[in-house]
């Protein structure tokens, strides 16, 4: 994701503008990543909870980009583990706990509602005041790099915890 040759779009302005899903798609396109947008309908949810969502697969991680009510951008990196949810393996939980205690750039959690455990890392960015193209480019670069780096660190932590057994 760290591509020093990526350029902001030509339509950048010095002032901040509302962050839109099209803007996210354009910036990620400058990195060579195509986002797939999805409609999310929550008719009973308050306006602040309405989300626009796009997904992509980066380096084997399922990435989700969500604009939450015009106030937050959430970038998630998910990885399905080869560990059955019913197995009760404590290692992924311990690795997430360790990462959450040491990493302040993102949050880590384990989902155990499917057949196999899902390891999720997510980072929030406040976008309510708007961003220009350069700010959005940097925010996306930083969020994607951070979530992928923490995913790698979680894998290393799980290996170290297993080696200590």
Report on the structure:
The chain is an alpha+beta fold and 165 residues long. The chain has a single domain, classed as Yope Regulator, Chain: A, CATH 3.30.1460.10. Helices cover 33% and strands 29% of the residues. It has three helices and six strands; from the N terminus they run H-E-E-E-E-H-E-E-H. The protein has helices at residues 21-30, 91-102, 133-164; strands at 36-38, 51-58, 61-68, 72-84, 107-111, 116-126. Strands 1-2-3-4-6-5 form a six-stranded antiparallel beta sheet. Strand 2 and strand 3 (61-68) form a beta hairpin. Helix 1 (21-30) crosses helix 3 (133-164) and helix 2 crosses helix 3. The longest helix has 32 residues, at 133-164. The protein is globular and about 55 Å long. The N and C termini lie far apart (35 Å). 25% of the residues are buried. Mean pLDDT is 90; it is low at 4-13. It comes from Corynebacterium argentoratense DSM 44202. This is YbjN domain-containing protein. Pfam families: YbjN (PF10722).
CATH architecture: 2-Layer Sandwich
Could you spell the SSE succession in H and E letters?
Answer: HEEEEHEEH
**Whole-number total of structural domains:** 1
Number of helices: 3
Strand content: 25-35%
Distance between the termini: 35 Å
So what's the CATH class?
Alpha Beta
Rg over CA atoms: 17 Å
Largest sheet: 6 strands, antiparallel
Which residues sit in consecutive blocks of at least 5 with pLDDT less than 50?
A: 4-13
CATH topology: Yope Regulator, Chain: A
Helix content: 25-40%
Shape: globular
The chain-level mean pLDDT equals: 90
Strand arrangement, major sheet: 1-2-3-4-6-5
State the total count of DSSP E strands. 6
Category from helices, strands and their pairing = alpha+beta
């Amino acid at each position: 994701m760290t591509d020093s040759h990526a350029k902001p779009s030509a339509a950048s302005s010095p002032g901040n503008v509302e962050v839109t899903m099209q803007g996210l798609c354009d910036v990620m396109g400058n990195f060579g990543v195509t986002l797939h947008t999805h409609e999310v309908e929550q008719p009973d949810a308050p306006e602040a909870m309405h989300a626009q969502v796009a997904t992509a697969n980066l380096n084997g991680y399922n990435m989700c980009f969500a604009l939450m009510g015009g106030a937050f951008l959430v970038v998630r990196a998910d990885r399905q583990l080869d560990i059955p949810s019913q197995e009760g393996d404590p290692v992924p939980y311990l690795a997430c706990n360790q990462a959450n205690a040491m990493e302040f750039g993102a949050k880590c959690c384990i989902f155990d509602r499917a057949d196999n455990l899902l390891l999720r890392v997510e980072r929030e960015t406040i976008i309510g005041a708007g961003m220009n193209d350069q700010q959005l480019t940097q925010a996306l670069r930083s969020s994607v790099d951070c979530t992928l780096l923490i995913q790698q660190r979680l894998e290393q932590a799980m290996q170290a915890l297993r080696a200590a057994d």
